[in-house]
Specification:
Layout lengths: L8 H7 L5 H14 L4 H13 L3 H14 L4 H14 L3 H14 L4 H13 L3 H12 L6 H13 L3 H14 L4 H17 L10 H14 L4 H11 L6 H14 L4 H13 L3 H25 L3 H4 L2 H27 L1
Amino acid sequence: PPGAPRSPAPLLLLLVDPRRAAVAVALVEGARDGNPGEARYHVLRAMLHTRAQEHREALAACRRALALRPGTTEAVELGAWALRAGLGDAAGAVAFVEECLASAPESDDVRYMVGALRAQSGDAAGALAAFLPLTERDPPHYLALTMVAMIHMEQRDTARAREAAERGLAKNPEDVNLHYAIAQTWLLDAVADGDPQVRGARREVVVERLRRVLDLHPAHHTARNNLAYVLAAEDVTLPDALEHAQRAVAEAPGHAPYADTLGVILHRMGRRDEALAAFRSALTIIDRAESALAAEASTPAGAAEPGRLQRLRLRLERQRAEVQRHHDAALGA
């Protein structure tokens, strides 16, 4: 009500307890009606609408907050979520965030969201165009540089990906994602040169970068799996590779490539039955992932992103073919 403390903290305490949703709604609406010029209360109401799966109402509340204070990051995020995930309108979410940027062109956060949403929608060129002003700042926006590196990596432009990642590391030398991105660019180069197991000159830099990632973030199971894969190329490092592969599978048992890597290592070590069990586990994981993907396609969010779902289907198909090839090789042995 008028004259109440400006901080919404007491109201936020109610947002975390779904049993008190009705109390939270009443308090937020009372604060909003008593302070109609305060954008924060419209944002809080949008949060409650989102939790109740009232996506159109959440979007309307976000628009009211943005009319009062253009560029309010939380309102932009909630509005984009309502459109993209709640209403299944991915294109509408991009247009909404672009509209928000036009109203607040100085907001780096909103500009970053434009690039991120374009990237998620498969518009790599549009994403790069949005990120470019952020990466040319001094100092550059390192999250934008991370996204630029990832986009270039997907395009197999590894030189540009490395350049963006190195610029990001100059600002944040302990950024795990950027160290990982650089390792991945060297792995991609090795594959392109016909050296998929990285036995050549790039081996040392890849191993060094992946170990650096794990030093900074021991739970980075993707880096651990990739390190196991690279170490498996040499007999002398097979025991180390096995240890990393087993830990990656234990930390993330739902990832088929990790079970596949473990199977490859076990096969190289002559442990055929254990290798076959790992490959079968990987194939089972892929079966489940394909079923989950089919279910997602029937949801509003899935229907709004057919391109993303198709990319995931193709990735699973490639994974299945690779695992099956390894399984058949072990079975034949």
